Amino acid sequence: MTYDDATRTTPIGTRTLGSTSPLTVSTLGLGCMGMSEFYGTGDEATAVATIHRALDLGVTFLDTADMYGPFTNERLVGSAIAGRRDEVQLATKFGNERLPDGTRVGINGRPEYVRAACDASLARLGVDHIDLYYQHRVDPNVPIEDTVGAMAELVAAGKVRHLGLSEASPETIRRAHATHPITALQTEYSLFTRDIEDAILPVLRELGIGLVPYSPLGRGILTGALTATSLEAGDSRLTAYFPRFHGAALEANLALVAKVGELAAAKSVTPGQLALAWVLAQGDDVVPIPGTKRVRYLEENAGAAAVTLTPADLAALEQAVPRGAVTGARYGDMSSINT
């Protein structure tokens, strides 16, 4: 089945994140970050059209954060879902504190900040509740029990329905979940980034917490559309913060992508669809949120929900991209990652 056929005829379907505090969402979500910052220039009208098309396709799990823009991405998402709020499972995040001019203040998990950040996000989004509220990064200076305790107060107040963490360690996940049920962990996971399989994914499944992989296409490289010269000025992937996109590392990683492309061609799907299908095949508790700001790529990503991988397909992908084969760290600075 080609991706055009898939996006026109195959329902996206749903999956459930978490078992103690379950949230049913679309099988694929939409990461909205790049509509406002980090991946080159954006266009608001195009972004809104992309969100509207997502809802029409059944991609109703939308992901944003207060720090994207900063603040402008929440306003964009809020304006796009006005009049369609009931169709959406809305996720946003707090914790990466920034000033309106973009200055990064640091990671903030203090209870008073949690409360203020939530109220500000609700106002920018134009909604009366957030379906899934994540701590974007773990504050090493604030006990996780204090941060999640404040998040739990938001649930009790009706401002938030479900709680999540992002880039949290197994120990932090356990302590947070003991304070209040955690519905989902958002972390990077793809054919190119698999370190969570050792300790984090087993803890999630032990506790009944869903997984929301961000960058499931390796920040776009697994689509096969990225080259050494295709990124536009201002794209953060051109900075030292993303070592996988530079020099010899990029060349080595593109060679891996070429192998994925060969397997995709044999199945009459795109490389990105095959990579997303691999993530989806890792379990019904996994809901990737590929980001895009264009309808064309949204439709392509949505087609991945119709791609079925056989055991032979999965084995071939494992051989094409062995775990640990990717060159370069996922971030140049890993200090914000809770370990």
Tell me about this structure.
- This protein has 339 residues and is of the alpha/beta class.
- The protein has a domain at 14-221 and 282-307: TIM Barrel (Alpha-Beta Barrel), CATH 3.20.20.
- It contains 11 helices and 11 strands.
- Strand 6 (96-98) and strand 7 form a beta hairpin.
- Helix 8 crosses helix 9.
- The longest helix has 20 residues, at 247-266.
- It is globular.
- The model is unreliable at 1-9 (pLDDT under 50).
- Keywords: Oxidoreductase.
- One of its GO terms (molecular function) is oxidoreductase activity.
- Residues 28-320 form the NADP-dependent oxidoreductase domain.
- Pfam families: Aldo_ket_red.
Q: How would you describe this structure in keywords?
A:
single chain; 339 residues; alpha/beta; TIM Barrel; 11 strands; 37% helix; 15% strand; disordered N terminus; oxidoreductase; Aldo-Keto_reductase; NAD(P)_OxRdtase_dom_sf; oxidoreductase activity
What overall form do the CA principal axes indicate? globular
Structure summary, number of beta strands: 11
Assigned CATH superfamily of the domain at 14-221 and 282-307: NADP-dependent oxidoreductase domain
Oligomeric state of the chains in view: single chain
**In DSSP terms, counting alpha (H) and pi (I) runs of 4 or more, how many helices?**
11
InterPro entries: Aldo-Keto_reductase, NAD(P)_OxRdtase_dom_sf, NADP_OxRdtase_dom
Domain NADP-dependent oxidoreductase: 28-320
Pfam family, one: Aldo_ket_red
Keywords: Oxidoreductase
In short:
This protein has 339 residues and is α/β, with parallel strands linked by helices.
